[in-house]
Amino acid sequence: MILLERDMDPAEQLQVIMDAPTLARPASMRERIFGVASVAALFTGLAVALAHGVPTVIGVLLLVALLFMLLRWDWFHGRATCRRPHTKVENGARFLAWVWSGIPVLDILRGTPVPVGVSLVEAALPAVPAMVYLALRWRR
Predict the structure, then answer these.
(1) Considering just the CA atoms, what is the radius of gyration of the chain in Å?
(2) Phi-psi region for residue 103, left (φ > 0), alpha (ψ -120 to 50) or beta?
(3) Which residues lie below 8 Å from residue 88, measured CB to CB, with a gap of 6+?
(4) Nearest 10 degrees: CA dihedral of 113, 115, 121, 126?
(5) Among 77, 87, 81, residue whose Cα is nearest residue 31
(6) How far out from the chain centre does Cα 36 lie?
(7) pLDDT (tens digit, 9 = 90+) per residue, 82-119?
């Protein structure tokens, strides 16, 4: 139905406005659970791999999983209907998650174990901005 073809009375105009999609749809509980679980798996996988010095093949697989998770959340929030555009802070958090993921990956690809404290800090570098990004997207 093309709305410009006819004049509408105020009640019809109000109904059209009420039927319009909103960009403030709240995040579902399922989305929140998957978000927290994926970031927790990212953090845990990186911390364990860093602390134990896994072989290079496993490090590459972990890197692919990390990149897939970040790409999947980018795609989900970019393609889903009724989503508001990304803010500058959300784009900054996404950027930091991508850039800071290189720090633990370099140590993982070396294959030498690092102290537990260092592994926790390095694993948190991409996990914290990823969690901030997801939490900001849930804020809608």
Answers:
(1) 21
(2) alpha
(3) none
(4) 0
(5) 77
(6) 10
(7) 667 778 998 899 899 989 988 888 888 887 888 999 99
Place of tokens 């896994």: 54
39 - beta bridge partners? none
Residue bearing tokens 């849930």: 138
* pTM of the predicted protein model: 0.76
CA angle 132, 97, 111 (to 5 degrees): 130
The one-character DSSP state at 87 is P
Q: How far is CA 5 from CA 10, 11, 20, 85, 130, in A?
A: 16, 17, 18, 31, 47
Contact status, residue 82 vs residue 47, Cβ threshold 8 Å:
no
